[in-house]
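input
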Amino acid sequence: MIIPYDALAKDTLDNLIKEFILREGTDYGELEYSTDDKIAQIRQQLKSGEVVIVFSELHESVNIMTARTFAEQPEEHLSPDY
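output
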């Protein structure tokens, strides 16, 4: 299930983005970006729809992923099997 980014409080969204950035690891490009720069980049990608916030009922977790990756996920990975 996609969670609209603007439905989250600013602090909650910032913490979610920070957790995502830390989990994703190190940059391997020529430029190093600060955490604040990375937060701004992810926030812009959320606004543009390039990435989405996804809640997995199956895993009871929240993640940020590209909209394309979300669209390619089999439905059974996104919701519980009752």
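quick obs: The beta strands are 2-3, 51-56, 61-66.
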